[in-house]
Task: structure prediction
Amino acid sequence: MTFDSSRLPLAVTLGDPAGIGPEVALRAVTRPGAPKCILIGPPVAAGRARDLVAPDWQIETVDGPEGVVDKPKVIPLIPSSHSKSHPYGKISAEAGQMSYHAILVAIALAKAERVSGMVTAPIQKEALSLAGVNYPGHTEILEYHSGILERGGRVAMMLANEDLRIVLVTIHVSLREALEQGDIQAQLRAIRLAHKGCMAFGIGSPRVAVAGLNPHAGEGGLFGREEIDIIAPAIAKAREEGIDARGPFPGDTVFMQARKGAFDVVVAQYHDQGLIPIKYMGLEKGVNITLGLPFVRTSPDHGTAFDIAGKGIADPSSMIQAIQMAYRLAEARKLRRD
Result:
């Protein structure tokens, strides 16, 4: 992929400073041929990651993305917070607060169109909670602070790799809550966003498969009526809107069918139903994309990996894929607007 160096940079947050986020971010943005990026996070976290994986690079602190130019072996950083060095592998309120501040800075830049999109390194949900941040993850933070709720919109999580695209009806809630939240409107919202998300990839007529909730997609009501009473009506409504939505299909086979090319995207009912298939194919290949935002946001499909943080051995492949995906989506968005 050839990158346009004249484009606005991508904002790349460092994630939880106790995890591998700063390390994979530095590896990804300093690799040869990377698109223009600007880091956001605590300078101390960026500096020790640089020392660990890119010691021949310099970090240049800047106030904003305007005027950032490519310089040999220099990566710009917007400080989102200041603190002393934080120990690797330790869950803490301080680390949670630092990761949260970086996300808010990136969102503000993306909303103001001062960056072409944002890519977020992994955060630790328990650390966020300790910091008093009452959101279970990136997706919910983005939904609230992007302003999309004020306009009556919602977001959805898409996980994608070279073989699969999966959109979730419900995300970071208990399985019991997922059953309660997956009503007809939630189903229809996910189907619509899956359709729109595929079009952002350049797929002109997306084929949207919807997974069932129960074994064998309910087996005609024998194993549950959610498919009959909730999911099928939502699919019918989507089809009335011109969306090529199909199903509900049994959850144990629909992902295999999509991987073979029968569908362009699968709408999964709850977190693990959708994430297990794509993560089983390799964490290094997956990218998390937030659909429904007024800007581009992606992230790697893995967590903070506290057990290997600070050892210089974290695989940056998923972060590299996330940055490339963000650039691709930002370019497609620009072409549509032009």
DSSP finds eleven helices and twelve strands in the chain. Residues 184 and 233 are 7 Å apart (CA to CA).
